[in-house]
Design goal:
The chain is α+β, with helices and mostly antiparallel strands. Helix content is 31%, strand content 15%. It contains 7 helices and 8 strands; from the N terminus they run αααβββββαβαβααβ. The strands form 3 sheets. The protein has a 3-stranded antiparallel β-sheet, covered by helices on one side. The protein has a 3-stranded mixed β-sheet with strand order 6-7-8, with no helix packed on it. Strands 1-5 form a two-stranded antiparallel sheet. Helix 2 crosses helix 4. It is globular. The protein starts with 6 loop residues before the first helix and ends in an 8-residue tail after the last strand. 19% of the residues are buried.
């Protein structure tokens, strides 16, 4: 039994939004973890008039408007400056957060659920990104036992160690490495039928689960956790 929940649904829940508001209280402590190249965390909230949002968040400012609430001031071409209100219960506006930031909020929110063991499943390319999320979790004083463990799946790629997508981008679609099949980038080129493709995916998952060494497990290493 499982339930599929999109980020659109998740960001509208009171728990996620309340945790997001808590992290805003400590934005100075986490901003270099969430945006190590420039320190400006990408927080995008769409304009209520046109639906557009500032891409990099350079002009987006937040101010507290009461316990557990925030006003966010931003601006876009056309309508110009606008202000939106964030409350945990109203589910609006849409919280378009940078990937690192939404993972930070997600892990903090899941950590508050003590009735379920949550596990984060990520691709191998997230190994280094998790170090930044861990740093922000530590800066917020997040307790170690409340952080979901991470499992990193193996990355599919040629012998040189590149990810398939990176290899394709570097070499061009018409010059794939010898050990990369076309269907790895375009599933419509799969040589069999749909049933055969599904059976192959089920087999692959089963093989990955046969040996723990197929995954890299990360548990947070924060000295501030107690």
């Amino acid at each position: 039994m499982y339930v599929v929940e999109t980020y659109t649904d998740q960001q509208a829940t009171p728990g996620f939004r309340a945790e997001f508001l808590r992290t805003l209280e400590r934005i100075e402590d986490i901003r270099w973890w969430m945006a190590p190249s420039h320190g400006v965390v990408h927080i995008r909230l769409p304009c209520p008039e046109c639906g557009w949002a500032e891409k990099r968040g350079d002009r987006t400012k937040t101010r507290r408007s009461g316990r557990g609430r925030r006003h966010v001031h931003s601006g876009v071409p056309g309508p110009g400056d606008y202000e939106v209100h964030i409350d945990p219960e109203d589910g609006a506006p849409y919280l378009d957060l940078a990937t690192l930031y939404r993972n930070l909020v997600k892990e903090r929110a899941l950590g508050r659920d003590t009735s379920t063991l949550h596990v984060m499943m990520k691709g191998g390319d997230w190994t280094f990104g998790c170090q930044l999320v861990d740093g922000a979790l530590g800066a917020l004083g997040t307790r170690r036992r409340r952080c979901p463990p991470d499992l990193h799946s193996a990355g599919a790629g040629p012998d040189r160690g590149e990810a398939v997508q990176v290899a394709a981008a570097r070499t061009g679609r018409g010059a794939l490495p010898a050990d990369v099949e076309p269907w790895m980038l375009d599933t419509t080129t799969w040589p069999g039928d749909v049933d055969n493709y599904v059976d192959s995916l089920v087999w692959l998952v089963g093989e990955l689960l046969t040996d723990p060494k197929h995954f890299f497990a990360r548990s947070p290493s924060r000295s501030s956790a107690a």
